[in-house]
Write a structure and sequence with these properties.
By secondary structure, the chain is mainly alpha-helical. Helix content is 69%, strand content 0%. It is globular and about 45 Å long. The mean pLDDT is 90. The termini are far apart.
Length: 126
């Protein structure tokens, strides 16, 4: 198994360990018509908000492709949680690309790491 496969397996294993709780919380939030805050908190606690951030910026350096696999695994347990995390990752991915390709976006990405931020978007309705 190569480094990328090992990283992916580690994160998928964590999702599987959290799976029952993700599902239980997701059902409760669906019934209450509320945001999956409990699940987002679990993911934050376990580092999923920084999983795609490059190691050079103190993240975990998981590739975009592997992040997609992580989101698919989360969706098996709670699709609402996978959607919310994908929105965070989308904003991160754009800035990570800028960092890698253009040398910009570093301050933004470091801010996510340093402040343990959860990114939100209005879906282009700002």
């Amino acid at each position: 198994m190569n480094t990328h496969e090992n990283k992916l397996k580690k994160w998928l294993d964590v999702i599987d360990q959290l799976g029952d709780q993700l599902t239980k919380n997701g059902i409760a939030h669906d019934q209450a018509d509320t945001f999956v805050a409990d699940n987002y908190g679990l993911l934050k606690k376990h580092g999923f908000l920084m999983v795609m951030i490059p190691n050079s910026l103190k993240g975990y350096g998981v590739s975009f492709t592997n992040m997609c696999a992580i989101l698919v695994r989360i969706a098996h347990y709670c699709s609402f949680t996978a959607l919310a995390l994908s929105m965070h990752q989308h904003l991160l991915a754009a800035n990570i690309w800028k960092y890698k390709q253009e040398g910009t976006g570093e301050e933004f990405v470091k801010g996510v790491v340093d402040n343990k931020l959860m990114l939100v978007s209005t879906g282009a309705h700002d």
